[in-house]
Specification:
7 helices, about 0% strand
Length: about 210
């Protein structure tokens, strides 16, 4: 939108997402009452809300690489569902905890699988996921619900930062791509110079980088 900074535009969109997902998570929490009978409603709500936020940030991150909406929709859809395939392959107990953590940082679907598995395991034990059991994993190679929620929010902020960065350096029709080191240039962060970085500053950093390499 004309005259609106990137920050304010992004903030407005994320505000809409938070409001929408709060309602969606509340509805899902109420509908899941018959399935998760022993689990805390607060945990269930936060689980759904966290997954929606992390999934959205992943999709937003992918938009940094595309100008064509059709291509973005197709490739983005394929990449999103590819994550579910990976998550399904990690559903067994053979994968180590480290492997599950690494894969969860690449795609939020892995965390959805791990969280749901926690719900099923603790519901079958008739204790559910509560404040007392939220830190209890299914086994030593698995993630607890607390691990799952923390990683979902880590993913959320990670993909937001990655989108901000790649949206600046990937060439597109929306504007001139900035050098990969743009965030190191002081003038980028100066008041009133959000989009303008002087060539002189680039030259200085280029010279420093060359000096370091040589």
């Amino acid at each position: 939108m004309m005259g609106l900074s990137d920050f304010h535009l992004s903030f407005s969109w994320w505000t809409v997402f938070v409001l929408q997902y709060t309602i969606v998570a509340l509805v899902l929490t109420l509908l899941s009452g018959g399935v998760f009978r022993y689990s805390s409603k607060v945990v269930i709500f936060f689980y759904f809300f966290s997954f929606l936020m992390s999934s959205t940030s992943f999709c937003v991150f992918l938009t940094a690489f595309f100008d064509d909406s059709r291509k973005a929709g197709l490739i983005g859809l394929l990449l999103y569902f590819a994550g579910w395939v990976v998550a399904g392959n990690l559903a067994g107990d053979s994968a180590s905890k480290a492997t599950k953590v690494i894969c969860s940082l690449l795609h939020p679907a892995v965390l959805y699988f791990r969280g749901t598995d926690n719900f099923v395991y603790l519901e079958q034990a008739q204790v559910g996921v509560t404040a007392d059991t939220i830190g209890s994993p299914k086994d030593q190679n698995d993630l607890s619900m607390m691990d799952t929620l923390v990683l979902m929010w880590f993913d959320t902020f990670l993909f937001i930062v990655l989108h901000w960065y790649f949206d600046k350096i990937v060439p597109s029709s929306r504007g001139v791509a900035l050098p990969f080191y743009f965030f190191l240039v002081p003038s980028y962060w100066s008041t009133g110079e959000v989009y303008t970085i002087s060539n002189a500053n680039y030259d200085v950093i280029d010279a420093r980088l060359v000096a370091l390499i040589l």
